[in-house]
Amino acid sequence: TVAPRPLVVEDLRVRYGGVLAVDGVSFTVEPGRCLGIIGANGAGKTSTLKAVMGLVSRSCTGMKLGDVDLARVRARDVVRHGIGYVPEGRHVFGGLTVATNLELGAYSRRSGLRERQEEVYELFPVLAEMRRRLAGALSGGQQQMLAIGRALMSGPDLLILDEPSMGLSPKLVGQVLESLLALRERGLSVLLVEQNAWLTFEASDTCLVMENGTVALAGSAGELRHDERVRRIYLGL
Ligand code: ATP
């Protein structure tokens, strides 16, 4: 196992032509902790994650995972540096089995593949039961677990998730929460983007609220869930 390392992002900007989608965002994901980012559609959450993964061009004054300077790492090498990414919409390979989907997640790290696969099956027993089934036959919640499991196959110490609750029933959102808490128990750091504020507050230690590409509010999950504005706008209370 790798020594736990913080992810530190300073003054991040992402621009698409004339649109400044992320406008000076800074945050730290402490080792073994979960940072949640909530915000409305178009607030810049996905762009922030893509910027960390090197999938969009961006500028910043700092972006480091431990002593690795992510600003200088090419997108295809980010996973090798210990970051797992679960993109929005899951994107599992429906025509391939559960087991093969997991194996594909280990493309950057073949050694210890079987052990990591067993760990994923231990974390998500339902995937073990369905290992020979086609991924396309799984329910939405099971596909989300498979997408998370696949990202774990590279042996990350930081997992980045983009709206894992999207399109899931409340019961399955509960399952996603259980998975996130189980990952935390195992010492993984998590960066979670969500529109579901309830899930974010349950899963996270600290949270950011993004509005128009900036951080409108930041604090502990406990503080933010009691904030008047957050309750009204994001929890609908
Ligand atoms: P969502 O919940 O819809 O994913 P978000 O908070 O993740 O929203 P982003 O997807 O990061 O927001 O989008 C931020 C802004 O950037 C929006 O105004 C969006 O229209 C714009 N944007 C995103 N991707 C592109 C792109 N490839 N080209 C141009 N504009 C884009």
Automatic annotation (TrEMBL):
Alphabetized InterPro entries for the sequence: AAA+_ATPase, ABC_transporter-like_ATP-bd, ABC_transporter-like_CS, BCAA_Transport_ATP-bd_LivF, P-loop_NTPase
Entries under Pfam families matching the protein: ABC_tran
Keywords: Amino-acid transport, ATP-binding, Nucleotide-binding, Transport
One Gene Ontology term of the molecular function aspect: ATP binding
Signal sequence, renumbered to the chain: none
Domain spans labelled ABC transporter: 7-237
Similarity section: Belongs to the ABC transporter superfamily.
Protein name: Branched-chain amino acid transport system ATP-binding protein
